[in-house]
Design a protein that fits this description.
Layout (H helix, E strand, L loop, with lengths): L4 E4 L9 H10 L4 E7 L11 H10 L4 E7 L7 H6 L4 E5 L8 H10 L3 E6 L17 E5 L15 H10 L5 E5 L7 H7 L3 E4 L1 H5 L3 H13 L1
Bound molecules: D-xylitol-5-phosphate (DX5) and zinc ion.
Length: 220
């Protein structure tokens, strides 16, 4: 079984204190950072880009950075994100065509990053079935991308179960949106192992206990 990894999303943190907030959650035991990049086009919101991530990397060496690219032209930012110190480039199937998706995957690998491929709630998991052997992580969205603090869609667990059944030990399955100490049980039973949690961890007064508990639930 793949080890459970907890990756806080800093989207709903005080972004003027990005490095401090990130360090606080890492000191509380988080395994990696999930950085939400939005372009106001693929999703109706704007966040940060590679210049900010590069500054964050200077403050936080070594930690695994997962850039969740909620952008319309994911091919555009591959080299910039690699240069900013990103370890995993997670882009969306819905932002690609069947012609360019293989190219995007190849370019991410050439830039020495792990390949994450995300799907929105409305996209069936079978749409990415033939790509899974080429990628490192599948990201199953459990909210419509764009905003933190939304309600977890438990119906998405069918996708996770299907993936875990077909790729028992190989594939990292990341799950993102509305995950807290209540909803994480569904994710654990379905077979997810990379857990993104935003507002629940940001708002928590005892992030260290919560992260530890989340990891135990996933690893059980
Ligand atoms: C949604 C983002 C998520 C989300 C996580 O567009 O990709 O990373 O903000 O935050 P919570 O856990 O608050 O849903
Ligand atoms: Zn995200």
């Amino acid at each position: 079984q793949l080890k459970g990894l907890i990756g806080p999303s800093i989207l709903n943190a005080d972004l003027s204190m990005l490095a401090d907030e990130s360090r606080r959650l890492l000191d509380s035991g988080a395994d990696y950072l999930h950085l939400d990049v939005m372009d106001g086009h693929f999703v109706p919101n704007l966040t940060i880009g590679h210049p900010v991530i590069k500054c964050l990397r200077n403050n936080i060496p070594k930690v695994y950075f997962d850039a969740h690219m909620m952008v319309s032209e994911p091919e555009r930012w591959i080299n910039d994100m690699a240069g900013a110190g990103v370890n995993q480039y997670t882009f969306h199937k819905e932002a690609t065509t069947s012609e360019n998706i293989h190219d995007i995957i190849r370019k991410i690998k050439e830039a020495d990053m792990k390949v994450g491929l995300g799907i929105k709630p409305g996209t069936p998991v079978h749409d990415i079935g033939d790509l899974i052997n080429d990628i490192d992580v599948v990201l199953i969205m459990t909210v419509e991308p764009g905003f933190g603090g939304q309600k977890f869609m438990s119906g998405m667990m069918d996708k996770v179960r299907w993936l875990r059944k077909h790729y028992p030990q190989l594939l990292h399955i990341e799950i993102d949106g509305g995950i807290n100490l209540a909803t994480i049980y569904d994710c654990a039973h379905a077979g997810a192992n990379m857990i993104v949690s935003g507002s629940a961890l940001i708002q928590s007064k005892q992030a260290n206990k919560d992260i530890e508990q989340m990891r135990q639930i996933i690893d059980e």
